[in-house]
Amino acid sequence: MVNNGTDSKSKEERDLASRIPPGQRVTEGFPVLHHGSVPYYNDMGKWNLRLFGLVEEEAVITYSEFLKLPKQEFGNDIHCVTTWSKLDNVWEGVAVATIMEKVKLKPEAKYVMLHAEHGWTTNLPIEDFLRETSFLAMRHNGELLTPEHGYPVRMVVPHLYFWKSAKWLRGIEFMAADKPGFWERNGYHMYGDPFAEQRYDFD
Ligand SMILES: Nc1nc2c(c(=O)[nH]1)N[C@H]1C(S)=C(S)[C@@H](COP(=O)(O)O)O[C@H]1N2
Ligand SMILES: [Mo]
């Protein structure tokens, strides 16, 4: 038999390798990365999540309403554009479909802008936001999100680089046309597929 270099690897090793996008290294830690400062909340009565833009009627979900929404378990592999990947994360949160029961989309809605605390934003196509695997997380690996990782609610979009997973999520805006968010205005790719290495787009 010709040795093609994979013979010595078990199926398990190959399956694992296929989950790691080109140019990524697996880390056991959970690095913290963001622009600006971590928001601290002392009055959750002031927190809400606003769904706005191309919807029939805007919706505002308060923290106590959000806590009552049905929660599900989700899994993902994190791929950060700065080349670290963290595999097998277990999250608890709210499915995007559950959130979308609060609004009726206008047919022109084709893109989403996620708005975080302090005006930070990130953009993605609406079908990527609506994907069954995308969710709004409250817990990571059994623990409540820490302030550094996005407490109380962060977006997680498993199939895109992790910068699309807005921490401290406060708003979901539905738009007709694509528009760059914070990092996208600063040279990051408009879409960010880790398997296609869509890291930066400086053209
Ligand atoms: N609100 C907000 N969310 C953000 C960011 C940010 O600067 N602000 N950075 C993004 C980037 S670049 C990455 S890699 C991940 C890091 O998440 P972590 O700190 O939980 O690892 O958050 C993303 N979400
Ligand atoms: Mo990042």
UniProtKB/TrEMBL annotation:
For bias kind Basic and acidic residues, which ranges apply?
8-17
Question: Pfam families annotated for this entry?
Answer: Oxidored_molyb (PF00174)
Q: Where is this region: Disordered?
A: 1-23
Stretches assigned to the Oxidoreductase molybdopterin-binding domain: 35-183
Write the signal peptide boundaries.
none
Q: Which InterPro entries match?
A: OxRdtase_Mopterin-bd_dom, OxRdtase_Mopterin-bd_sf
Source organism's superkingdom? Bacteria
Protein name, per record: Sulfite oxidase-like oxidoreductase
